[in-house]
């Protein structure tokens, strides 16, 4: 059973005993990175970093997680800032969540756990269900009671048990972690975060021996940001990273508790009344990993930025029309965040910045106007 | 300008002069594989095989093509046959087409071509449009005149010029190749096939120094199958492959001209009257690369199999519900094909078989029934 530790108070524990620290903060899985070197083996995707993971590579869909492309995208440069994209849509269920699900499922399998669960009605639910079934585990997905069936269709393809939960969905996150019959792999639980950190290992290895100047990502629960921060510390301990890239959290303006806390110079993120946003998959008004996310932004000299929906939609369009990347709205928040950070001179000309596109946009059904004209085959050559 | 050659009559030509041979058959790009070794460099995705490609790695979305996971999937074993999946859905636009588009676009850019085009209303259109815009090229997509707007929405996200063509859409394929104002990168044109072959390089490298016993893939125009066959020959010339994996083509029973020709022991594929199928993206009644596909099946000791829609839907469900892979119907045709080939004893127990999942299923909008029950938060622990 992996040993876990609190980033804040330093207490250690066994994962079997607790998923959050007695002080209330999230825990992460301890590793031993001193002797870590960039791997040369043939493990696929994120599993090349098995030395920094609490489990061995699984078979099945979990083995297909990570290893996503990091590409230089000159057409998407912002001012003089050099744009790089990390396309997490190229995961088995189309989002970054597969990294954490794969670790959670592989660990459950190792320990003889037969049922895993998650509190989500979006990417995490799909990803957990897919990874569970690929490993032969049962999966329970808890969703809000009032969610329409069509929002659940993507999840149902993988045939998990879906439970509509009546009551305070916000409180469910915590309640679920106390349930013993099912192991919940929620957004900032230690095993999920152990998987999510691999995105930073991939980014840093691709740049090594150099380092990108900054990484911009959409932030919801704060789990991925916490994982990335952990990875940076591991690489520094291993002697593979001298300077940290600055980490920037992008949130939708309608629901931006982490940005507010950062700007107000608070140590803790307070729950807010979140509003509606097109980036609904990152609209977390009370992020369980919010304080750790704040600490990560400050430790790396980064920052936080809010993005109104109009800028998000414009960024989504630019990514597709000029970059060839079709992403979900929450990913576009990160790119729009980059544009604003450059405007605000927080990111400067000549810097190399990685924007994490957390999920592809093919699951979003919103149609767009099609502008096509009709020509006859015989006219085609002359029309062209 | 790359030099091209006919697999059948052996004639060479310059790509600028012709995309098909004077004998009528498709051409492929010549390479010099004698000294090729498995690469050790850091080029991303399919670009690790630049030594066997007519272009250098591009920047932008084209650099994100290929490098897809190949995973062992024990839960999807068929009888005693060991299942491996190659998940081509993990490409930038969600399908295998990105490999060929990336090469076509990179080559066009090299040669100062400013407009490229394609004849497609599906994955190839999306992929060509995305890759073109990512490189700053204009793109023309030719679709049938009577296609409904909603079928074009996925393409329109990338904002290419869409032309509805009145007249014989079948004939358009050939007409388009004669147009000088726009360079068409159709399904079995030499540059596209050069990109498509990289999937076989990845499969063979993952297994090396061993070899999979067979590869099963869905076949439409025959372009990808031709490319895979080319790659196998290149690897043999390089001394990296002793025995060929057997290649198997899977087609929808409603539109299976290549299967019919194979079973009738014909040297040429004849156009048929194709019917409707859920696997509409591979329903090509008159495949331009059909004869070359046939030659590939025979040269490798493989075969061909037709799949009725019911088996396709069942395979699609099994891939998602037991494997965690959500694929489009045409990809499920390949897995259903594997099941039938095992039933027919053409693939035997103990063999290791790679099924190529050519595209993910997130673009398909068909909803499915959602089976969810409602419980209150307080009951949750006891229900679980």
TrEMBL record, chains A, B:
It comes from Halalkalicoccus paucihalophilus. GO terms for molecular function: L-serine ammonia-lyase activity; threonine deaminase activity; threonine synthase activity. Pfam families: PALP. Keywords: Lyase, Pyridoxal phosphate. Residues 64-359 form the Tryptophan synthase beta chain-like PALP domain. This is Threonine synthase. Its cofactor is pyridoxal 5'-phosphate. One of its GO terms (biological process) is isoleucine biosynthetic process. Its EC number is 4.2.3.1. The gene is thrC_3. It is an enzyme of class 4 (lyase).
């Amino acid at each position: 059973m992996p040993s876990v530790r609190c980033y804040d108070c330093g207490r250690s524990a066994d994962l079997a005993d607790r998923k959050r620290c007695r002080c209330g903060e999230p825990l992460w899985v301890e590793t031993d990175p001193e002797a870590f070197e960039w791997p040369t083996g043939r493990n696929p995707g994120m599993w090349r970093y098995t030395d920094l993971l609490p489990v061995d590579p699984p078979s099945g869909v979990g083995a297909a997680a990570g290893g996503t492309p990091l590409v230089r995208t000159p057409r998407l440069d912002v001012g003089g800032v050099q744009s790089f994209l990390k396309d997490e849509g190229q995961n088995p269920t189309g989002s970054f969540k597969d990294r954490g699900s794969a670790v959670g499922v592989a660990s459950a399998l190792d320990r003889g756990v037969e049922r895993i669960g998650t509190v989500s009605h979006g990417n995490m639910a799909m990803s957990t269900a897919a990874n569970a079934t690929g490993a032969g585990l049962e999966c329970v997905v808890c969703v809000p009671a009032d969610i329409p069936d069509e929002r659940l269709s993507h999840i149902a393809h993988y045939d998990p048990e879906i439970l509509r939960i009546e009551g305070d969905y916000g409180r469910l996150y915590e309640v679920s972690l106390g349930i013993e019959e099912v192991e919940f792999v929620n957004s900032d639980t230690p095993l999920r975060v152990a998987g999510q950190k691999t995105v930073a290992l991939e980014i840093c290895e691709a740049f090594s021996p150099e380092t990108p100047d900054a990484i911009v990502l959409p932030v919801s629960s704060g789990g991925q940001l916490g994982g990335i921060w952990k990875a940076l510390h591991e690489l520094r301990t291993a002697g593979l990273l001298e300077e940290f890239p600055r980490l920037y959290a992008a949130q939708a303006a309608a629901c931006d508790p982490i940005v507010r806390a950062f700007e107000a110079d608070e140590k803790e993120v307070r729950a807010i009344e979140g509003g509606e946003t097109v980036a609904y998959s990152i609209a977390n008004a009370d992020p369980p990993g919010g304080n750790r996310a704040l600490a990560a932004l400050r430790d790396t000299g980064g920052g936080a930025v809010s993005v109104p929906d109009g800028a998000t939609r414009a960024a989504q369009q630019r990514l597709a029309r000029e970059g060839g990347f079709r992403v979900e709205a929450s990913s576009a928040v990160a790119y729009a965040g980059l544009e604003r950070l450059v405007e605000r001179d927080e990111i400067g000309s000549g810097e190399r910045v990685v924007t994490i596109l957390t999920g592809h946009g093919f699951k979003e059904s919103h149609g767009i106007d099609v502008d096509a004209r009709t020509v006859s085959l015989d006219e085609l050559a002359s029309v062209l």
